[in-house]
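Regression report. Comparing outputs from two consecutive submissions.

Submission 1:
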Amino acid sequence: MSGEAAFKIEGVVIEVLPNKTYRVELANGHRLLGFVAGKARQSFAPNPGDKVRLKLSPCDLSQGRIILETKSI
């Protein structure tokens, strides 16, 4: 996933799943699978209700990498 090709969106974590994966709901009501990758897996764990920023590949819009946690709702 190239940095220029990927785009960033915001969503809210609605469900915590096994293996550091999360169900995230976007503002338009769509739900997708979010995951934390790399070194962030050790220190980053959003809870349901937390706003997160996701990086999505234009090829697969059903899942994305959680890159940033914003403040809770």
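Submission 2:
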Amino acid sequence: MIVDTNALSAFADDSPEAITAMGKADRVTIPVVVIGEYRYGIAQSNRRNKYEEWLAGFLPACDTLDITMKTVPEYAKICLELRRAGTPIPSNDIWIAALCRQHDLPLLSRDRHFDHVKGLRRLAW
């Protein structure tokens, strides 16, 4: 399973539903884009030290996904599909969706705009 930023945040905040959802995964995978978004969020938090410490302890237990040249064609296809359908989504989320399609993994996210991406299975909690 690939984890979106809102799922990572919920897990860090001990959301029972997010913990249960992640507990069902054979493997938890976090895109570098999500790590960047999360670090940006915690940089603005008044509980920054707590979240940075939590993230440093959590990441070694996860796989991370980098954007590679193999990701680029999926990104371009998704951009075109969404544009033609009139359902654009944020660029970072297109990269996350491209990684989901590239690796054929579901996405744990509350962002319903991912439902517009063909071939992506979104898991909610």
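Expected: both submissions complete independently.
Actual: both completed, but the second showed a warning that disappeared on reload.
Relevant detail on submission 2: The CA atoms of residues 81 and 117 lie 8 Å apart.
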